[in-house]
Design goal:
This protein is 38% helix and 12% strand. By secondary structure, the chain is of the alpha/beta class.
């Protein structure tokens, strides 16, 4: 909340609505997360740019957007992980798994900011204010665009499980003596380099890779795999991630 100023406005009172309108008259962007019934009380045009505030970019962030049957319902990130199929894809149909990171919350905020900037550019190029709607429901499909995009012959989407370590034996996480390593042998050539590095035969057997890497430290495993051209990196755990040099630098 740096560089922000806060006030309290009672939007149920006429003088509160008047105060809000005074602010909107001198604002570039109005960002709110009100449900449609609450927004209607503010006497703002809900379906397009406001005639009263012609230069205003009005962005609504909500749970279900303008979907009539759901628009006034509350919602939060885990709801849309399960309603969009994300929890099933991460776990399985029998054991859905909700992720700890708020994917839909973050995506909705980012899409709201992007849409607002596009609207400001439109205004600067000679247009007028714009009316924007973003929602957790829409974002839950946006962040899964790969899974929702299909064509004749499209590959089946990956399916996780309760202990999902990666999509293939050469492209997953493995436990070493002192931590975990992530390996990305994503094609036949890299899988060949992986078997060479670990002195294993083809085809790759998960149990053999697990057993071999369990004998190495993370640093030794990364050095060995990198020397054979196999992408690998340490899996950063909670107790060190805030001090991890890569994350600090970035």
């Amino acid at each position: 909340n740096q560089r922000k100023r806060g006030i309290v406005i009672d939007q149920k009172r006429p003088d509160g609505i008047a105060a809000l309108h005074t602010l909107l008259a001198q604002s570039d962007i109005y960002l709110e997360n009100l449900r449609p019934h609450a927004l209607a009380d503010l006497t703002l045009d809900s379906d397009g740019p406001s005639p009263r505030f012609p230069g205003l970019v009005h962005c609504s962030l909500s749970a279900f957007g303008r979907a009539a049957a759901y628009a006034d319902l509350p919602g939060f990130d885990p709801v849309f992980q399960v309603r969009s199929g994300m929890a099933m894809a991460q776990g399985s149909p029998d054991h859905p798994v909700v992720g700890g990171a708020p994917f839909n919350d973050v995506a909705t905020g980012a899409l709201g900011a992007l849409g607002s900037l596009a609207a400001l550019y439109h205004r600067q190029a000679g247009g007028r204010g714009q009316r924007l709607w973003v929602s957790l429901a829409a974002s839950s499909t946006f962040v899964q665009s790969g899974e929702f995009t299909t064509w004749p012959g499209a590959p089946t989407s990956q399916q996780g499980d309760l202990l999902f370590r990666g999509p293939a034996d050469g492209h997953r996480y493995y436990q070493c003596r002192d931590g975990w390593v992530a390996i990305a042998a994503v094609d036949a050539s890299l899988r060949g380099h992986l078997t060479e590095a670990l002195a294993l035969g083809e085809p790759i057997e998960l149990a053999d890779v697990e057993r071999t890497l369990a004998e190495h430290t993370v640093a030794a495993a990364i050095a060995l795999l990198s020397a054979h051209g196999v992408p690998a990196c340490r899996v950063v755990l909670d107790d060190v991630r805030l001090a991890d040099p890569f994350l600090v630098e970035n």
